[in-house]
Amino acid sequence: MTKSESAAEVLIEVRQVEKRYPNGTLALKGVSLAINRGEVVCIIGPSGSGKSTLLRTLNALESISSGEILMDGISVHAAKTDLNELRTHAGMVFQQFNLFPHMTALENIMLAPVEVLKLPVAQARTRAEKLLAKVGLADKAGNRPSQLSGGQQQRVAIARALAMQPRVMLFDEPTSALDPEKVGEVLDVMKDLAAEGMTMVVVTHEMGFARAVADRVLFMDRGELVYQDAPEAFFTGATNERLRAFLGQVAAH
Amino acid sequence: MKPASPLWRLLTVALVLAIGAGMYWATLKVNYQWRWERVPEYLLVTGGEEVPAPFDGTVAVNGKQIRITPLLGGEPQAIPDIDVVQVSDGEIVFAGNTVGKKAGITPGPLLIGLWVTLKISALSLVFALVLGLIAGLGRVAHNPAARDLAAIYVELIRGTPLLVQMFIVYFFLGTVLNLSGFVAGVTSLAVFTGAYVAEIVRAGIEAVPKGQMEAARSLGMSHWQGMRKVVLPQALKRSLPPLAGQGINLIKDSSLVSIMALTDLTKAGREVVSSTFSPFEVWFTVALMYLLLTGALSVYVRKLEKKMAHD
Questions:
Q1: Is the Cα torsion angle B278, B283, B286, B291 positive or negative in sign?
Q2: Where are the alpha helices (DSSP H) in chain A?
Q3: What is the model's pTM?
Q4: In Å, what is the CA distance from A87 to each residue of A92, A94, A125, A197, B211?
Q5: By three-state DSSP, how is residue B83 classified?
Q6: Candidates B211, B225, B237; nearest CB to A94
Q7: In the 8-state DSSP scheme, what is residue B74?
Q8: Which of A79, A77, A71 is nearest to A10 (CA)?
Q9: Residue of A61, A101, A117 with shortest CB distance to B218
Q10: Whose CA is closest to A34, among A4, A77, A79?
């Protein structure tokens, strides 16, 4: 730990988290991790390594078997925690966008602020319009998801998550379902977000993005957090066997 | 794909005509007397409504004016709106005797039966949709009690014949709770159809990708908010075609209420047959009238589907 990472700045703390599926498979094996306010953390690793599972435990979309996760000091998986309230502080972006197909882009963004935050409709609309402009889709407010490209849908999904004014944004392979030429526009929005100081946890296969934007890169394999470091050191100087094997495989493609 | 030859259409027409001709030939074999001209009077009665005498009295007729002087004494009273006079001057009538008919056309027994069938079906459908929605939500609920209760309801109702359920509702519940035939009919049809609606709703909900509820929950919405605002609107849209089919089944099943002393379209048909001795014409007419109801419903739902597809 460097001096700047004092305890006061920790936003998310993961302590010895294990996740066992009913069939006995261990998806997470004693993962511990601290994420600071304003930090951008990228998680990479082969498929099935548990990186998405770990991300989804952070806002309790996935339960844990043992250990503890604290967000702003609140135990995420404690029975008495108001999960609905807690989730308003953690925006999530999914691989498959998961926009609501029966609503326009604007309505997608307005829904939760109106339903959950009880924002007046006019105020929610203003907020949604601003966010659509921010992700470069001001002219698509009235479009249904089916009328948008994958990249545009994902940008609306980011705006939808931002509408709750979260303290942290969780990205679950946000560009994996996109056509290659649409990846850039989504990463650009994420870069802007990082530059604004948003705390971000990003599960990704985009090594270039991780290298350019992340403050720290994590490597997961078979449910374990194997290695973590600043991007430069991570991609060039890492001596870890499993990480080098993985990076070698990725580079070969 | 190359367009199908128009000859196939011709074959269809030929086969339908052949079946029709075969049926006609069969009626000739049994020496059936077709009397289609007798059917209209059971749809619409042109004579108008019959007017009974309000009390015992002596009739005075002047053109279409009828006045009755009470036998027990008192002022003569005029009977208004008579178009066809059916008594003669000076005749003595008793209370309830028909003195004449009003002008105009009134619905005949078949149309009245159609109206009863329509009323029963529409009411049952509304209750069935409400019941089915609740039971369907129960089927996918996290709460084990809700899930089990919904499952028991669905299995019990789908596993027993509607006719048997109707006997139970009408003769058992109906007697215990003193239900009218109409209430018993609507109850049994709604409960029966509700079980099928529940399964349609459940399938609709399960067909909505899991990511939709996850997205809603990740935004801080409760399970119920996510269900109401995100999952159900999509599920119901998918459910419309099977729901239309269930509605059509309901209209047809409503013919079973004729066991409950209710004169629906089927019961009316049976009564008309017994007074005309023209079963073929009457049952064909009744079938056509059911087809009218079911056809209207399926056209309406198709329009609704199109409208929702545009939204």
A1: negative
A2: 51-58, 83-87, 105-115, 121-134, 150-162, 180-195, 207-213, 231-232, 241-252
A3: 0.81
A4: 9, 15, 21, 20, 16
A5: coil
A6: B211
A7: S
A8: A71
A9: A61
A10: A4
